[in-house]
Design goal:
Layout (H helix, E strand, L loop, with lengths): L1 E6 L2 E4 L4 E9 L5 E8 L6 E7 L4 E3 L7 E5 L5 E6 L8 E9 L13 E2 L3 E6 L1
Parallel strand pairs: 2-11
Antiparallel strand pairs: 1-3, 3-8, 4-5, 4-9, 5-6, 7-8, 9-10, 9-11
């Protein structure tokens, strides 16, 4: 079993920065993708970015150049650094994990383990 727990969400003004975290515990995998998704009220959950077991990252066009995903040395915590935040970045942010070696997992249905989410609100 895998547990994912997000933290660090909150309220920030437009143009500001915020870093949220996803702590992983439980079963480990030699190959995997860890993804960040977000869901705004009334909208579908959408892909934000991901990092794989060798540190490769991929980002949605909407956040490219503003958001950065990293992972700690123990590979138990994944971070999403969000800079130049906009009101449209307001959403519940979820981290997700999928074992295996499949390139460019960007679909919600491609991830099997999910955290409970953390709210990020960007005020204008």
């Amino acid at each position: 079993q895998v547990q994912l727990v997000e933290s660090g969400g909150g309220l920030v003004q437009a143009g500001g920065s915020l870093r949220i975290s996803c702590a992983r515990s439980g079963r480990t995998f030699s190959t995997y993708d860890m993804g960040w998704f977000r869901q705004a009220p009334g909208k579908e959950r959408e892909f934000v970015g991901s990092i794989n077991w060798i540190g490769g990252t991929y980002y949605a066009d909407s956040v490219k150049g503003r958001f950065t995903i990293s992972i700690d040395n123990a590979k138990t915590t994944v971070y999403l650094q969000m800079n130049s935040l906009k009101p449209e970045d307001t959403a519940v942010y979820y981290c997700a994990l999928q074992p295996g070696n499949i390139p460019l997992r960007i679909g919600v249905q491609e991830y099997g383990y999910w955290g409970q989410g953390t709210q990020v609100t960007v005020s204008s």
